[in-house]
Amino acid sequence: MKLDVLGVQAFVALAERESFGKAAESLFLSQAALSRRIRNLEINLGVRLVDRTTRTISLSTVGRSFLPQARRLLGELESALQQIREQRQALAGNVTLACVPTVGVRFLPRVLEAYASAFPDNRVSVLDHSSVGVQQAVLDRAAEFGIGIADRLVPEIEYEELLHDRFVLVCRNEHRLARRKAVAWSELESEALILPGAGSSNRPLLDDQLPAGIALQARFEVQRSTTAVGMVAAGVGVAIVPDLALQPGAYPMLAAVPLVRPAVSRAFVLMRRRGSSLSPAAEALLGFIRRERRSQRRPAPAQ
């Protein structure tokens, strides 16, 4: 049976005021609307709660028995709603976080959408930085926490693994490798590639994890993965980028093929100042981030 809260509310108001006019006024209703609510409640319950005459109203035997239960029901409902309001007020506030741009392409938007739905009055500021910049923003307290790659660990920061992001080959759909399930790095030696530049945080990852025998020829070097993807879409070449840099549906003319032998990935971490507490609003946002991590967690790729 569907709970008729409005009907119960109308019944209690009528029982306490003993007048359709006064009860309707207390609920900002017309008398006809109040009468309909009570009648619908009686129909749903299959009993008469109110005895009506042309001059008086009184509760039926069942109505008198039901009244204390109805009051308790409304009281418990109001108490539960008040607890929710208080929790929401306690978590109110503005949050600033720092993150690397690729996290903002695919991972973070889903988190922020869910957070905004739960806390529509909270404002979130996102600082786009390199991983070094993310860490510095946390150290300087410009951001309460950050998401980036832990290139250089510092004792003032606590690190928590968030997810792994593998590197893929991005090419146009008509490219000879576009339909492959995977491509070995050694197969790219004859390709003119768009690669991360020396100033990119991705470049040292590739240099460290690729075997010495693999020599990749760079036609272009870029600092941002999003720039590389745009160049591939324009037909300039093929690129090696992290998988998270590709926004689903944004480039239907492109294919992303996993790179193997070896599989190379980068680990994103949450960064926060050691020993510093977060604001309630930031703690709530961090909870949404962790839930998103659990829903799509990527294990470290097999070699």
UniProtKB/TrEMBL annotation:
Pfam families xrefs: HTH_1, LysR_substrate
Alphabetical keyword list: Coiled coil, DNA-binding, Transcription, Transcription regulation
MF annotations from Gene Ontology: DNA binding; DNA-binding transcription factor activity
Matches recorded under InterPro entries: HTH-type_LysR_regulators, LysR_HTH_N, LysR_subst-bd, WH-like_DNA-bd_sf, WH_DNA-bd_sf
GO cellular component entries: cytosol
Coiled coil: 67-94
Record flagged with keyword Transit peptide: no
Keyword DNA-binding: yes
Entries under PROSITE patterns matching the protein: HTH_LYSR
HTH lysR-type domain boundaries: 1-60
Entry's family note: Belongs to the LysR transcriptional regulatory family.
Protein name: HTH-type transcriptional regulator CynR
Species name: Achromobacter anxifer
Upper classification of the organism: Bacteria, Pseudomonadati, Pseudomonadota, Betaproteobacteria, Burkholderiales
